[in-house]
Every structure is written in structure tokens, then in C-alpha cells.
Amino acid sequence: MTTTLQNEPSAPAEEPLEAAQLPRSISWYVLGGAVVVSGALTLLLGWNLAAFGVVAVIFYLIAIYVISRVVEGRRKATNRLMTGLVTTAFILALLPLVAVVWTVVDNGWSVMSAEFFTSSMRNVIGEGGGIYHAIWGTLIITGLSTLISVPIGLMTGIYLVEYGRGALARQITFLVDVMTGIPSIVAGLFAYALFELFFGPGIRMGIGGAVALSLLMTPIIVRSTEEMLKLVPDELREASLALGVPKWRTIVKVVLPTAIAGIITGITIGIARVIGETAPLLIIAGSTDSVNFNPFSEQMMTLPVFTYFSYKQPGVPPEFGIDRAWGAAFVLILIVLVLNLVARLVSYWFSPKVKS
Amino acid sequence: MAKSIDVSDLNLYYGDFLAVKDVTIPIAARSVTAFIGPSGCGKSTFLRALNRMHELTRGARVEGKIMIAGKDLYGTEVDPVAVRHQIGMVFQRPNPFPTMSIFENVVAGIRLNGTRMKKSDAEDIAERALRGANLWNEVKDRLSRPGAGLSGGQQQRLCIARAIAVEPEVLLMDEPCSALDPISTGAIEDLIHELEEQYTIVIVTHNMQQAARVSETTAFFNLKGVGQAGELVEYGETTKIFSNPEKDATEAYISGRFG
Questions:
Q1: DSSP state of B54
Q2: Considering the domain B5-94+168-254 in this protein, what is its CATH number?
Q3: How far is CA A93 from CA A88, A89, A292, A329, A341, in A?
Q4: Residues A238, B95: C-beta atoms closer than 8 Å
Q5: Model ipTM?
Q6: Which end of chain B is more exposed for a tag (fewer CB within 10 A), N or C?
Q7: pLDDT > 70: what percent of chain A?
Q8: What are chain A's domains?
């Protein structure tokens, strides 16, 4: 066609497929530049690690956004900015965790010794002594609390998912939600009041501590059991029911085994949550220097309470008490770490396999 | 062994909503009956009523009678669990139990009920069921491997083996091949031909050609409109339904004018 109409509208410009791009490692170079500039500034104006970090990050974010906006366009610039912000947030979140672990390891590692693990504080003043009684106390009380919480939590979870439909189920769900927020000291006060009813004032018992901890653990187990059971697809239940298997057997033999890996992980998380609770144990389990294997009589020492007292009343000279506190805190973190590893192992071992 | 089923005036409800209306149909023993019809017309709902799975849905209820060998399945004294012992079901997507091996899956119907049996008896039952499902040769060397590690077609045959291991009278199949490739589908259709010598089979299928290949009797279900109840329009010998149906709706569906 050689002639065109005069009032034919011009065709819209086609969007090009290619666009300008910055070189691959540009963000690292910009980061390096921001670090250098920020370092120079803080060195000149007075060194401060935190200020250095903050200024470096701000410089980096501004620089990368501007450079990218000019060269690549708005969308890519926003992308780079958001990536930077998200990474910064992640590092910020990680810092306290790393700092805590580092501090505890740094301070507690040197306290580890055979004596520390095998002796209690009985008749110990100043140097020496150990956490034998506290470790056993923590294991016994947390173990008892697990024994109480798991059956209750598991069966409540099963009821809520497999059976509960009406008002009762709604109320239970609401109460469980409320219970997840109970402050631990309130749980301890409740346990104390309960035991005081039966045994009179001033009562201290390991089992009371277990009751208080199970108040905190049970809602966690209910929640995680619920979530794991809901993940089991209905078609598995239908397959079992269609074979003429009664409902309770379907739950016990098909649904629970399929969900067991997640449930055990939930239980382990519950244990890890309560193992370090100090307030309730202060009130009802009390504190003592000697070993006590009997949860039904007299006070029982636990690692978090031991840490508290060692730090608060270290005696004279104070270094030994404070060292022992760090040591106990270190052992506590170690136990939680081992529990989490065990949870992962169990979860892997029990989960349904596809390839053998 | 296989029994026939007589359905009369069956109405299926989800709460107040009537899902399937006034179904009356005899299902012959030792033969294959196919239910065809467009999506949502109530074929699967009706199938699930046959082994009392329909009432498992919250608010679902059944009115009418389903007689098997003279006994009403919905009689007041009847235990649904016992019904499902006699009437087995295979589902649309294969659902082997993921925590169990192939062997355990096959004998699950017996083991899960707590029946104790000697290992050798269980192995005999498993072999018979797997042979019956045409899966024995493929898995005989790996019975202790996980059931979920098989291919789709094998998994479905495993589910069929699991269903026939308890020796039901009737086998219900809810679109058993819709999740499978053509070769596996062919294998299962051959299997259905073998199984119908021993069992009464009812199969729901979306695939008309499959119904024509596999069944002796075909029942056509249809839906008058959205939100209305599904109903049984026509049933009869498969060859007649597909060549010379009586109702217009059947003819329209068969020739692909809707569906």
C-alpha cells in the first residue's frame, strides 16, 4: 500500500522485549562501596559498630535503588530495593539468636567438667559443686509433665478433628486458644493453689511443677495435633472406612500413623517450650541444694531455677556462682538443641516413605 | 457369592438439598453395571449410598430402600461397618495407605479389623488378591516396599487388590481410571472383565466409550438444571442404550450434544 488515509491513527508503539540490565555482581560492588564509605565516615566521626552497620545498609539501599532505577527501570529497581530490605530484616532477626548462643557458649563452655555434671550443691560453699540435682529435676519434672500433657493433648486434638462438630468443639477450641496465652507464672500460681488445697500452705512438690508445666504444654500439643491430623487427606479415611474398618480403628491404625511424625515434632516443640520456664517452678517446685528423685515429696531443683538462684545469690566470692549459672544455662540450651535434633530424626524415621 | 442389589425409590439429601431423586434400578449379580451422565448429576452420590458412605458426610441422609439378597441396607438394625465388609469400593484417585508396605496394604482390610491370622494365611490371601488384581507378577519380589512407591496404574490395582482381599459381594468403582494413562486404563478394564465372573461390579464413569467397552448394563443419570436434583433417566442393556435409547436426553448425551 502506498497511500495512507490522513486521519488514520498511528499504531501504538510496540513494547520492546529487551531492556537494559546491570552487570551480574553489581549489588556486591555497591555493597562494597557502601561499606567503604560508611567505614570512612564512622572512623572520622567516632567509631561505632552499630552506626557503621546502619549507615552502610542505608547507603547500600539508596545507591542500589538509584543506580538500578536509572539503568534498568522502576520495576527492577524496586525489586533490588525489596531484596535488600528483606535480607536486612533477616540478618536483624538472626542477630539476637546468634548473640545469645554465642554469649552462653562463651561463658558456659569453660564451666563444663566432670564434677559439674556429677555433683549437686549439697554442702558446697564457693567453688565446686554442680548441677547433678538440677539436671535430674528438670528431666523428672519435664518428663512427668509430658506424661500428663501428651495423652490429654493428643486425645483432645483427635476429638476436635475427627469427632467434634458442635458447640462443645467450638468452646474447646476457644479455651485452648486462651490457654496458649497463659503467662507461665499464672500457671505456677494455679498449680500452687491446687496443691495448697490438698496439702496445706507452703507445699512444694516436683509433681506440682509438672502440673504447672503441663498447663503450658497441653495447648501446644492440642494445636499441633489438630494441624497434623487435618493434613491427613480424607481419602485415606474413606479408603479405610470403605474396607469396613470402624471409625476408631481407622483413626488409630491409619490416621494417627500417617500424622505421627508431625505430632511427635509438635510434642518435642512443646517440651522445648516449657523446659526453660522458671516462674512456675519457683513457686511450686521450689529450690534445694540436694538431689531429690521423688516428685511427690519436697522441693526439687531444676536447671532454670538453679540458674536464677546462682546468679541472684552467688555467695562469696561471686564468680563461682555466676559461672555455675552460665554453665547451667549452657546445659539447658544443649538439652533443647538435642531435643530438636531428636525431633527431626523421629520425624524423618516415622514419616511415610515413598521410595524405600 | 456375588449378590444382586435392588434399589427402590431412593432419595439422597445433603441437609435439606435433594441431590438425587427417586432412583429405582436393579443391579444384576456377576455383571458390570455402568453409571454414566454429566458432571454433578449424582452418579457418585448414588454410588456412595450403595455402601453407606453417603451418610458419612455431615448432614447427609438417605430415604428409600436398597435391598441386597433380601435385606434392606438401611434397616434399623443394620451396622454400616458390616455393610462395607460386603460392599467394597475403589476410588477415583488411588489411595494406598502411605505408612504401609504393599503386603500390608493388601491385607489391611483384614488386619485393621484386628483379626489375628497366621503369617502364612495372610500371605496366601495377599497372593490371591494380587493375582486377582493382576499385580502379583509385578510386585511379588517387593511386597515389603512402601505402597506409595508404585506407579499410578499399579497403585490403583493395589487398591483393587485391597478391596477384593476381603472378598466382598459387590465391588463399587468410582471413576477408577480417570486419573490413569490409557495403558493402565486398559489394564484395569481387562481386570474388570476378569473380576465380573466373581463379583457384582458397579462402575461410575465419565467416559462413555469405557462404559460401552466394559459393562452389560448402563444407567444414564441426568440433571435437569443447576441446583436441581439428579435423577435416573434410563437404564438398560448397554448395546441398546448406546445404539437405540428410548429417552431424548439419553440420545443427546450419547451423541455428545451435551455433557
A1: G
A2: 3.40.50.300
A3: 9, 6, 40, 22, 22
A4: yes
A5: 0.90
A6: N
A7: 96
A8: 26-110 (no CATH), 116-350 (1.10.3720.10)
